[in-house]
Amino acid sequence: MKRHHLYRFLLAAVLPLAAVAAEPSYTPVTNARLLNPEPQNWLMYRANYSGWGYSPLKQINEHNIGKLKLAWSYSTGMMEGHQAPPIVNNGYMFVTTPNNQVIALAAKTGRELWRYKKTIPDELQQLHPTNRGVALYGDKVYIGTTDAFLVALDAKTGKESWKTPIADWKAGYYTTLAPLAINGKILVGCSGGEYGIRGFVAAFDAETGKEIWRTYTIPAPDQPGGDTWPAGTYEHGGGSVWITGTYDPQTNLTFWGTGNPGPWTPDTRKGDNLYANSMLALNADTGALEGFHQYHWNDGWDWDEVSAPLLIDVERDGKKIKSLVHAGRNGYLWLLERTSSTVNFVDAWPFVKQNVFSSVDKKTGRPSYDPDHIMHIGKAVGFCPSLWGGKDWPPEAYNPITGLFYVPANNNLCAELTNIESKYTKGELYLGVSLENILTNVRMTVESRDHIGEVQAWDLNGRKKVWTHNYPEMNWGPLMTTGGNLVFGGGTNDRLFHAFDASTGKLLWQYPASSGVEGVPSSFAVDGEQYIAVQAGWGVDAQRMQGAFDAVLDHKTIVPQGGSILVFKLDK
Question: Is 302 annotated as catalytic?
């Protein structure tokens, strides 16, 4: 072999080894790091325990955003809705996809380090085939699966450390949320209200997977709130936990939103139906219920209030209030006060068109209903907002520099449903509404001809909307905001990923992704360079809502399918 050919051969053989050797060592995730995440990392679902969806990084800002270019992309090989944020720990990126898959990549280059996929039973029907992310703790990565398992993986190799069943998938239980790590415990919640499950939040030991506590969202008859359910109904009362909770380390309380009661027919479960459609404040060590607020009672509109409240300090009348802020699926924006032992109502007002609430009690926050918009069996009832809500699961964001609260909203949209009789059968749908009715439910208004989707920015102190950006149709875009005075979000059927001026709402930049963007954005830095990351991949409820639009408007909207991870940086 000639010398120069030998040199090329040896160089080619050595380069992959050098690249592997250059991979950074994995930095364990400690309690201290979770309490004070480094700016260059995105260690949990919404970046911090307060749920802000905020990155303090400001290298990318409103002045240079026009130079933002694609640094790398990665095809996940999966269809359906890609909704998880890219989680980053000192150069390691972890992304979950539909079908219970975790992918570990080098955050700077996109090189795959390992891939894990949980095998699920062939007969399992995945009503929501998605996943919303991992939790990091110690040297492990944690994922909840659609067959109701919690799995711990070695962060460097992807090998299973342990897996624990958290509920019976045959009864309709499943998990799509990102777990939450708190002081050596991994907290998860379960979905499945549409199958007649009884929702819960549970905590597991991070090292062993052993269950530590479990708190049901629907109380038994002998528990506080149990008398708000007719006899025999609580066991299938719903109250799903779809979205990761938030946490206040000062009070050691963790806050979780709950879904609608089951079935959808309120005539069959007269009463307030605690603690469905509520916010629960749980002791992180014991799971004890320390406080709650029910956003609306005896729900019949499928207004899941599953988004966890954001922890934001709000000033009212010169007084600083440690608040819990929630943009509700019921179309109202809620301000609650958190204390060490109670949750108090502060204020609420509509942020989209709403015609069900006739009033909201100024002391308790309990709404009264217009009787013309209350659901009954056999009667077609119209209501606003639609069953998709003023804001569905996509999370809001808060920027401590601008002081603004950002909401991905759907406005000017209504629905019409007819309740039907339903009977519980294990593992089968327990809805009280026909699937055909759900899939063709949207009703347009005069205003919806102008627009439906919105990105809203609110001054919570002054109770006023500062700016709004409108989209012609829906918005299913989770939001992220940054120290660079930017707000990022996708969510539209035109596949665009957008960046706005966080102070004014001016559209500054957009990128056409390969599919619709309903992933949670994140931001991180490696070697002093800031990146913006998001998943594209259209599906699940965004696709179903699009189908409802198409059915009503008699047109067909094609949004390309297939998931990908997109990572951007400034073009030098």
Answer: yes
Domain-embedded: residue 18: no
Pairing of strands 278-283, 453-459: unpaired
Inter-residue long-range contacts of 75-79, CB under 8 Å, 24+ positions, other chains counted = 75/562, 75/563, 75/564, 76/101, 76/103, 76/535, 76/537, 76/563, 76/564, 76/565, 77/563, 78/537, 78/562, 78/563, 79/537, 79/539, 79/561, 79/562, 79/563
Alpha-carbon gap, residue 74 to 192, rounded angstroms: 31
Q: What are phi and psi of 556, to 5 degrees?
A: -125, 120
Query: What CATH number should be reported for the domain holding residue 174?
Result: 2.140.10.10
Residue from 299, 302, 392, 501 carrying the catalytic annotation: 302
**Is residue 565 a part of any domain in this protein?**
yes
**Tens of pLDDT, residues 358-396:** 999 999 999 999 999 999 999 999 999 999 999 999 999
Does residue 271 sit within a domain? yes
How many domains does the chain contain in total? 1
pLDDT tens profile 442-500: 899 999 989 999 999 999 999 999 999 999 999 999 999 999 999 999 999 999 999 99
In a domain, 161, yes or no: yes
